[in-house]
Specification:
about 270 residues; globular; mainly alpha
């Protein structure tokens, strides 16, 4: 599966001449390759569970929260067990919007700022890809799972509760179709890719950058409150995005050399 998926974007580049449609196709195939690698460890759930780390993020978050995890503090302060409040739905909507935000950012560049597209798409894709490497090496459980296993104080999975309220009968098919690998909490790619999208949008203009950062910060707060991620997951996601952003000039030379080699094979290259 890895051999099949990673060659697909290059194959499309070799098979078709350069166009915006091909650019979109290459990015889509790259994300197909990412998702295959992201979800592949879950093909053997028992083996994945045997390698999954549960306790270390709890210990770190308790240090951050002064003896209690920030998720527990936030849910006690803002939540009400057995009740879905307006801000529960609002933060859940922000969470669900994430499925469109990184890719929507790349699409925005493709359509409106094509001169920024290649670099932006590479940076967003790199954040996904390098995060998937960590998921393979150190599978880590999220707060809601740790609480279900009695490893920490009870944590509500508010996003699921809100989903059942908002989507009704559609919720379970939607959730089952999008869940994927449940032990991919560290680093938070929800937050890391949103930070990278904000970085990329800031390079386009102050307005898009402000929107990007406002979304990333709102999502980060929501992820902790909803019980989806620890604060340390967010810190790791931010660090991953920043490392890729700052390391891009170093990586540019080999990446451009690889791109040039592919370009020589494109239709009409002669």
């Amino acid at each position: 599966m890895t051999a099949l998926t990673v060659q697909a974007p290059v194959a499309l580049a070799v098979a078709t001449p350069r166009s915006r449609v091909r650019d979109a196709g290459i990015y889509a195939l790259q994300m197909w390759a990412y998702y295959a690698q992201y979800d592949m460890p879950d093909d053997d759930p028992d083996a994945l569970l045997a390698r999954t780390r549960i306790d270390y993020p709890i210990r770190v978050d308790r240090l951050i929260g002064g003896g209690e995890t920030p998720t527990t503090r936030l849910q006690r302060a803002l939540g009400r067990p057995g009740e879905i409040r307006r801000h529960d739905i609002a933060f859940s909507l922000i969470h669900w919007a994430w499925f469109a935000v990184p890719h929507g950012t790349v699409a925005f560049l493709l359509v409106r700022h094509h001169d920024h597209f290649t670099r932006g798409a590479v940076l967003v894709a790199a954040t996904f890809d390098l995060g998937a490497v960590v998921y393979w090496l150190v599978p880590t459980a999220p707060p809601w799972y740790a609480a279900q296993r009695g490893r920490m104080a009870p944590v509500r999975r508010i996003m699921v509760e809100a989903g059942e309220r908002v989507w009704g009968r559609l919720w379970r098919p939607l959730y089952d179709g999008l869940e994927g690998n449940p032990f991919a909490a560290m680093p938070s790619l929800h937050f890391g890719t949103s930070v990278m999208a904000a970085r990329v949008l800031s390079g386009v203009g102050r307005g898009p950058g402000t929107v990007g950062w406002a979304y990333a910060l709102s999502l980060g707060f929501g992820l902790v409150y909803l019980g989806e991620h620890y604060v340390v997951d967010l810190i790791a996601g931010f660090a991953l995005a920043e490392a890729i952003w700052r390391g891009a000039p170093v990586a540019a030379r080999p990446l451009l050399a690889a791109a040039a080699a592919v370009r020589r094979l494109e239709p009409g290259a002669a």
